[in-house]
Amino acid sequence: MAATLAGPGGSASAEPAPGVGQRGQHAVDGKPGPCARPGTGKHKRACRLEVKAPSSAATPSVVLSGRAPRRSTIAVSGGAAPVTTEAGPKRRFSVTVPLVPGTRNRLIVAASLTSGKRVTTIRRRVSVVQTAATGSAQVSGVVVDATGAAVPGATVRYGDRTTTAAADGSWSLAGVPAGGVTVRASAPGHLTATATASAQGWAVPILKELAHPVRISKRGKTLRGPGYKVIVPRGALRRATRVSITPLTKATPLDGSTFPIVDISPSGLRFRKPVKVVFARDLTQAAQSRPVVLGVNPDTGRVTALPTKVVKGSIVTWVSDVDGAELVLPQAALAPDENDPGAASPIPRPSWRSRSAGPCA
Known about the structure:
Blueprint: E1 3-4, E2 14-16, H1 42-46, E3 50-52, E4 56-57, E5 61-67, E6 73-77, E7 83-86, E8 92-98, E9 104-115, E10 118-130, E11 137-142, E12 144-145, E13 155-158, E14 161-164, E15 170-176, E16 182-186, E17 193-196, E18 202-203, E19 206-207, E20 214-216, E21 221-225, E22 228-232, E23 241-247, E24 258-265, E25 270-279, E26 294-296, E27 303-305, E28 308-311, E29 314-321, E30 326-330
Parallel strand pairs: 4-10, 11-18, 12-19
Antiparallel strand pairs: 1-24, 2-10, 3-5, 5-8, 6-7, 6-9, 9-10, 11-15, 13-14, 13-16, 16-17, 20-23, 21-22, 22-25, 23-24, 24-30, 25-29, 26-27, 26-30, 28-29
């Protein structure tokens, strides 16, 4: 694809992800981020990422909670679909993560802070086993495109179970666990999409048709569309390249907390100079207090925080390579109640045995 700019008791292990030090990662210019400087006391506590999760779950999804740097963007990948939220003023966060059924889900929890062209990301690894790949429930729905027209022949998948959409886009999967299962839909010429079933077992994946590629020479080019502007500078490409810029404003959100904005294809494309992407001003008011644009790969679920800055009321980000991800902008998230951390959780919470990760400083 392209780059898209949106159980039982016990405790799972929480530890730094491979290759990520206690000070997090930096982007673009390599300067220290807000949590990358040595510190003690309150500074160390403010830069910690603590994650609580059950070691296993029989439900299709699980609730992760914990503490992260204040107002940081929390992105969880490695499950059935990536999800995002924001740490509140008191550093608490809570997010529901859909799981891949019948297997161990190795989740990566990333907390990202941005300061101009600098991004600091702290990552922790959590392992949760989904123990019930099958059940007595049924999930069904219809696959449509951005105009609402049916997409016949689309493949709909939940774990190892697959089905094909009929001529009217309808599909059905039996023998799935009860609850909000998350299905993945794909079709030739379209971008992959996920959708979570409602309590009635109904899901409607919305597939966005891949835009016709545009030829961009070594001189660069500026491409405009609904809600975005992509500026490819001179010298960013070694040779003339055909690039697809697909607006995603009507595509299925990754979850209830992101605005899908634009997809840049083909996957694997690398720019010699960062490409600047400017989002429409009307998105700024709905964005988080400290917006961080995320690059999300809809096929692998990999999530990368991109350098983000607000310039004259518009949100600006920079892309250096296309890793099959879509660019999305997290919405402002309501922080969980400090006195009731489980209030926002639609799934019964297991008893916790907290294990926190080390400081980032």
